[in-house]
Amino acid sequence: MFKNLYRSIYLPIVLIAVALILIIDILSITILTETLKDAYNGMDEKRVARALDSCKLYISSVASSAYNLSLDDDLIRELAASAPTGNPIVSKLDNTCNYSLKINAVCAYSVNGAVYTSSQIANVPTIEELKKVDEIKEFINGDEAAAISLRCECIADIYNNASYPDEMGVITCCRKVYDGDKVIGWIFADILPSNLYSIIFSNGKFENAVAFISSDKVRFEYANNSRHENLLNGKHKGYFKYGASDEGFSITVFNSTKDYDSKLIVLIVILLAVSAGLAVAVHFAARLTAASVTNRLDRLIQKMNSQKIA
Known about the structure:
Layout: H1 3-70, H2 73-80, H3 89-97, E1 105-110, E2 115-117, E3 121-122, H4 127-130, H5 134-141, E4 146-151, E5 158-159, E6 162-163, E7 170-179, E8 182-191, H6 193-201, E9 210-214, E10 219-220, E11 239-246, E12 249-256, H7 258-309
Antiparallel strand pairs: 1-2, 1-8, 3-5, 4-7, 5-6, 7-8, 9-10, 9-12, 11-12
């Protein structure tokens, strides 16, 4: 008897409730997306910053090793001599490579033209070839006692007893060797960028990431990251981009959004499931409310009709 009234009670309740649920869902998904993204970005930015600090500490430690070697009396005597004296210089260079952290090679050059290298390196560039690199030329000709060179040219052909391509690059801690106030030679302690990339990827959260270590002039190739150079051009859909730099040395990491996407999907599914449950609850509540009103009216009419008959 009161079907129209039933619908006029049921439909507004359901429509208003569903509209409110949809609005809440949209706002919740928006807030949830941004909050989760901020959480991921904040943690990964800290990881990249820590990786940069670890790489700088690594380079600083190698530079300290080169400095300590430059004070070695046997090395000073050897570099100051007009001709090789037979001192066990190679063993000292090897000991420097293996002292506390990985130094891939150490070379010592005398101003007289003698060259000494550690064991696992071969076909090293001459001092004249090294002078083709701007920062090394400035170091040799300038007054600074130490310098850092990041380059992809004038590199030894063999590292760790294996062929080494130039595009992989090298980081060199350069140090002058003095006899009194006179420069008698130079030490070049080489770090392969793969050592620093290992620091970045030692964090399990970056196992699916693409990383780039670079300076103002060069970018070091590693693990086929050259295939992903499009990421550096702003085309990094599916990746979060993080970067940290200091004094011309920079790390850029593109971390996959797969983990973020999967967690976001799970949270959205849970939210929508709860919303669906609320919608079902509203449906039954609206039915009960509408039925309660119309049933009372039905009983009232029945009562009035029975009174008329009586």
